[in-house]
């Protein structure tokens, strides 16, 4: 018998005397401890499932980006006509994107690109058949993953994209614009890019190291540049995005839009 055996037997005897002296209290303690153990397992399982779901979501979505209307120009010499508008003038571009069918096959896409916008665009085009010929954009950007999907959908349908005078197409919106088989920019349209950034809560960042964050940023950049190349646009467009802070926009001049083939026509 080991040296610890008498001590263990003594503890068991003490527990047995306490149990039989007050069995109700002892039973309640056992039940309470059991409930604590079950709750701990449940909480741990739920946390693990939530973390796995968040990691899977990050893996399949390039980025979900904030969209702020009326960001200032990164180049003082390049005027942003839309930024000079009085507050409250025109549609509220901070709201989720709306799709409105107009005459002559024009589909107006106005507002922020949010998760699910690409799917809604696909549904709208499928519903309208060949009637839609032009997608008119007025957007401060938003979800990069949706913008890329929208561009590919627009190109698959052979549609024209257009940004009208005093219209805006900023941040991730030029990715959508690049999808047009013909890309028409009016003089005075504000078309520009900046660094993309992920919207992530503190909980979503759990388990993501600095190298993983950098790798995700590189993957997003590669997807954006691949799209531009596939659409026949000069990937130098995205160099200006990488160089421009998120709180500013690099607005392109009409000559630059044509030089980079981001617009096929400036009128």
TrEMBL record:
List the signal peptide residues.
none
Ranges where the record places region Disordered: 60-91
Keywords for this protein = Hydrolase, Membrane, Protease, Transmembrane, Transmembrane helix
Q: List where the protein spans the membrane.
A: 26-45
Gene Ontology terms describing biological process: proteolysis
Under InterPro entries, the record lists: ClpP/crotonase-like_dom_sf, ClpP/TepA
Query: Which molecular-function annotations from GO does this UniProt entry contain?
Result: peptidase activity
Classify the source by domain of life.
Bacteria
Q: What is this protein called?
A: Clp protease
């Amino acid at each position: 018998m080991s040296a610890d055996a008498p001590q263990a037997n003594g503890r068991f005897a003490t527990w047995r005397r306490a149990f039989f002296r007050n069995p109700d209290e002892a039973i309640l303690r056992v039940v309470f401890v059991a409930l604590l153990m079950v709750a701990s397992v449940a909480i741990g399982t739920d946390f693990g499932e939530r973390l796995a779901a968040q990691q899977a979501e990050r893996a399949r979505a390039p980025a979900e980006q904030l969209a702020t209307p009326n960001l200032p120009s990164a180049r003082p010499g390049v005027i942003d006509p839309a930024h000079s508008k009085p507050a409250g003038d025109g549609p509220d571009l901070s709201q989720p994107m709306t799709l409105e069918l107009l005459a002559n096959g024009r589909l107006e896409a106005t507002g922020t690109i949010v998760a699910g916008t690409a799917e809604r665009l696909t549904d709208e085009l499928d519903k309208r058949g060949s009637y839609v010929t032009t997608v008119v954009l007025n957007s401060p950007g938003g979800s990069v993953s949706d913008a890329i999907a929208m561009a590919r959908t627009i190109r698959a349908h052979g549609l024209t994209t257009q940004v009208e005078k005093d219209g805006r197409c900023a941040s991730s919106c030029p990715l959508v614009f690049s999808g047009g088989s013909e890309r028409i920019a009016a003089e005075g349209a504000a078309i520009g890019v900046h660094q993309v950034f992920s919207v992530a809560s503190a909980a979503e960042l759990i388990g993501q190291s600095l190298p993983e964050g950098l790798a995700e940023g590189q993957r997003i950049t590669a997807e954006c540049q691949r799209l531009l190349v596939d659409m026949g646009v000069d990937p130098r467009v995205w160099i200006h995005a990488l160089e421009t802070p998120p709180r500013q926009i690099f607005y392109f001049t009409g000559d630059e839009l044509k030089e980079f083939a981001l617009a096929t026509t400036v009128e």
